[in-house]
Amino acid sequence: MKKASLILDRDYRIGQIDPRIYGSFVEHLGRCVYGGIYEPGHPQADEQGFRRDVLALVRQIGVPVVRYPGGNFVSGFQWEDSIGPREQRPRRLDLAWFTTESNEFGLHEFIGWCKKAGAAPMYAVNLGTRGADAARNIVEYANHPGGTYWSDLRKKNGALEPLNIKLWCLGNEMDGPWQMGSKTAYEYGRLANESAKMMKWVDPSIEVVACGSSGMTMPTFGDWELTMLNECYDNVDYVSLHRYYGNPTNDTPGFLARSMDLDAFIQTVVCICDSVKGKKHAKKTVNLSFDEWNVWYHSNRQTDEVTRANKWGQALPILEDVYNFEDALLVGSMLITFLRHADRVKVACLAQLVNVIAPIMTRTGGGAWAQTIFYPYMHVSNFARGTALRPVVCSPVYDCADYTDVPYIDATAALDDDGSVTIFAVNRSMEEDILLEADLRAFGELRMGGHILLHHDDVKAVNSEENPQNVAPVQGKGGTLEGGRLSVRLPRLSWNVLRLRHV
Ligand code: AHR
Fold this sequence. Notes:
Blueprint: E1 2-7, E2 13-16, E3 23-25, H1 52-61, E4 65-68, E5 92-94, E6 99-101, H2 107-117, E7 120-125, H3 132-143, H4 149-156, E8 167-170, H5 185-202, E9 207-210, H6 223-232, E10 238-245, H7 252-256, H8 259-279, E11 287-295, H9 300-309, H10 325-340, E12 345-351, E13 360-362, E14 368-370, H11 374-383, E15 387-389, E16 392-394, E17 397-398, E18 406-407, E19 409-415, E20 421-427, E21 434-439, E22 446-454, E23 474-475, E24 479-482, E25 485-490, E26 494-502
Parallel strand pairs: 1-21, 3-4, 3-12, 4-7, 7-8, 8-9, 9-10, 10-11, 11-12
Antiparallel strand pairs: 1-16, 2-15, 5-6, 13-14, 15-19, 17-18, 19-20, 20-26, 21-25, 22-23, 22-26, 24-25
Helix pairs in contact: 3-4, 3-5, 5-6, 6-8, 8-10, 10-11
């Protein structure tokens, strides 16, 4: 059997894990809101129309922050449409997805839902078709205590206390030609700067995220970050990154190696942020908000067909990727990559939360269930709290189309405040189990607290309403832990969580 080794020390610290890296995203898109988190009349709906079965799954994951209301949708959105009496809210064409938005679910409903989900809101303002004035007005509406036009309107609409939205996105993917009101890097940088400045004048306690490139493959990637940060560095706190992967050629080893691309993407953006910092002689560091990430490709054709056949429809079943087992492995590796960059990645949002490229699926009028990718997401959110550690991993490697020397074992670890250590590991090998030998002597006495294993013999296996547990975690065989040395067999193609408790 092949072997891999891992050495850990409590002093090999990457940084404190910001729990917001386990965030997610709810866009007015497809059935994410309508038929997803909100479905009045459903047998599971509560008095506000929120699906209790969905809320229970969201709480199981532990989602600390939820980005809203888009996405591409936000670039044509008038936030004022989403407040006040429901029957007076306008119906509008949404040019992002060629659907109709009823505005039945709006800002107050979202804040109410967040409270029930135990999540903080992350609100995106429209810098596509609108600008700094609309942006500062919504901050005043949401966060100003009272005594002004917008804050008193909030009170009239039922919220006597401020909504307290602390994290704001300055638009969405503004480099993309598909975006309503897309801009050059300079135009956007100027607008982001003025918007951030005015929003912070209204409420200095907020943090704001400037749009980075919509992906590393954009021709303007790099130059966009440099140019726009040059304009807004002093007034922004984070730069956004977005990345989705797919396996359309059915190349599993190549697909599972894509987290190496993610790693390079993060490193590059960190370098750009720091080069602008250096050039400006700034003390402040701009960190990263990876506010859209996932696997996304299964539903592309179906989305085109549904959209074409139902132009201007509502709550259409679009972007409904059904995730298989190999997708869960890559999602696990992507989460490992964020942990490895915990010093700079402070926010990350799995896109999206329900139905639309999501870990949770529902049937309108029917059940709710966990997709395969739900599990690594939940495990890392539940167990990787505290300090991210940098393990020294030595693994056998393989080559694939785009990469050489891909480690079969992709692993990282977290040290909890109570002294327990959790190792997260993916075995990318299609053929072989691998013996992982971990040197944990630096932590004093530990005992094996559990081995959670996600494996399926069929990489294309999926979960469904009828068979929701087809791909689900089981208890792994664990291993031996003697004198601080752990020895554990990681099955071929598997996601593993190894919990080691402090004695
Ligand atoms: O998450 C789906 C879409 O992907 C978002 O609306 C957009 O920001 C990205 O291109």
